[in-house]
């Protein structure tokens, strides 16, 4: 019996690897302009202007947002300046949502002098708003608030949040089923920190998980 040469083994392994890679479907990133490269502007679609809330701790929030070409060896980085006592916040573009769907958001974040809360939020239209209108935060009301994670520390960390958990209570699902749009919110509570800081975000991806949410009995 002839022995199989190393070259033949290597070739078979390469063909198998290529066929597997071709068979694997591409993962869709549901966050529009997640890399801040839109031709309409680096923050196109992102929510940074909250002057409409008339909350004095959020007025001028959009002035705190910018996109850096490079920061600490990472490219296309969202920078949010955090003035002392200010509730700095930013939300991703809206994503249409179907009840029961589960999403996961992963991102790299670096934080200076403060702590950042990150979570998914779920919205529906305010009363009197037509579904035909272009949705924006001013025309929406929050129906669901997921659990948040907190980021601290001036080194890059990879983190994630999900909406919802794999198992949800009947009460939680009663709110979730009213959700039409979701965002990922990142914010620094203004009443907590009385010193200036910054936070930086990059490599943000929002993907749909294969498992549907299950309602606990």
Q: How large a portion of the residues is in β-strands, by DSSP E? A: 35-45%
The number of helical runs is 2
Topology, number of strands: 13
SSE pattern: HEEEEEEEEEEHEEE
Overall residue-averaged pLDDT value:
90
Q: How would you sum up the global shape?
A: globular
Described by strand count, sense and barrel closure, the largest sheet is:
6 strands, antiparallel
Give the class from helix and strand content and strand pairing.
mainly beta
Question: What is the radius of gyration?
Answer: 21 Å
**Poorly predicted sequence stretches spanning 5 or more consecutive residues:** 15-21
Q: Helical residue percent? A: 10-25%
Measured between the Cα atoms of the first and last residue, the distance is 63 Å
Secondary structure topology:
Elements: H1 6-23, E1 65-71, E2 74-82, E3 89-91, E4 95-96, E5 102-112, E6 116-125, E7 140-145, E8 149-151, E9 157-163, E10 167-168, H2 170-176, E11 181-187, E12 197-209, E13 214-215
Parallel strand pairs: 10-13
Antiparallel strand pairs: 1-2, 2-12, 3-11, 4-11, 5-9, 5-12, 6-7, 6-8, 6-11
Salient structural properties:
mainly beta, 13 strands, 12% helix, globular
What does the model show?
By secondary structure, this protein is mainly β. It has helices at residues 6-23, 170-176; strands at 65-71, 74-82, 89-91, 95-96, 102-112, 116-125, 140-145, 149-151, 157-163, 167-168, 181-187, 197-209, 214-215. The chain is globular and about 45 Å long.
Describe the structure concisely for a colleague:
The chain has 217 residues and is mostly beta strands. It contains 2 helices and 13 strands, in the order αββββββββββαβββ.
